[in-house]
Design goal:
OB fold (Dihydrolipoamide Acetyltransferase, E2P); 2 helices; 15% strand; Chemokine interleukin-8-like domain-containing protein
């Protein structure tokens, strides 16, 4: 009887470990469709680079409206927007001192 109880406990622990491990395997957000139209700088709050584990390299733009847009990081206007946002965040952080 003790062996049966021990076997059940071992199986439960193995099952929990397996399901917990599978939960964090993939990236949280990847892009498969991209916005091609240029977006106004004033409409973008911030950006996030998608995980390197995604099949497509992408930038997620966090819009003022709360939406997110996927854009290609190689596009000229996206590069300019990232530079603008980085500069804005650095100068904004310094102004609070």
């Amino acid at each position: 009887m003790a062996r049966l109880a021990l076997s059940v406990i071992v199986m439960m622990v193995a099952f929990i470990a397996l399901t917990e491990g599978l939960r964090g395997v993939g990236p949280k957000k990847c892009c498969f469709k991209f916005n091609d139209k240029q977006v106004s700088k004033e409409k973008v709050m911030s950006y996030i680079r998608t995980s390197q584990r995604c099949s497509n390299s992408a930038i997620l733009l966090n819009m003022v409206t709360g939406r997110q847009l996927c854009v290609k990081p190689s596009t000229a206007w996206v590069k300019d927007l990232i530079t603008y946002l980085d500069t804005k965040n650095i100068s904004g952080a310094n102004s609070n001192l």
